[in-house]
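Record 1 of the preview.
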Amino acid sequence: MWNASVDQIIEIVNLYGIKGIELWDQQFETRNYQVKEYTKVAEQYGIDTIVHSKSWDLNFASLNKSIRQASVEEIKKSIILAEAVRATEVTVHPPRETFSGNKEYYYDIAYTSLREIYEFARLKGVEVSLEIMEKKTNELVTTDEELKVMVRDLYKEMTYTIDVAHCSSEEEFWRYFNRVENVSKIHISNKKGKKLHTKLSEGDFNFKDLILKLRQHKIPLVIEGYDGGNDFGVLKDNLEFMKKIGGIK
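->
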């Protein structure tokens, strides 16, 4: 709901009986939301909150030291926001290679930055949930194996987010789900071939069956997508689909 006010977001949440919100820090900052305003209505309506850290233009494994440091600092700001809005965790995107050719080198840089992020979050009482990314050139974490290579001894200290649209198939999704420890939530959206984050009702995955399977595990499902309109038609279509299949009451 990129163009929405806090009140408009809360209105949708209440209308559909949604339990929580994953706030995107980039939107929070860009739209100049206020912490006091958000926490007041979140407490009033009993809304659970997760924060998705900034990710656009960031790369905490960048070869460029200044970009790397700036990326870590921006993620720390997202952690500070999470603490301020009483969020249980902050979702963090893994970094990328600046250019392909020496992944081990970038894993070393990524781990050092991640250790700093993790230690900062621990001081703030906020969980870090690292997300497994789509299979794009230079991404460092696109499988559960790559995740473990990067996080090393932090593996059992953090939680993890699996995004259905980042998976090549439902079989791959379940493989990650069953092999990754401490999965804190699932991002749900569909995909059409290489086009990611389409409506739940439109794409390669059969969400009518998948949602019912996921509900058995009692893990938070976060409907993900970008809705840049003013009528929030994409989100409403997703929520109506969820109601129809019994994903929400």
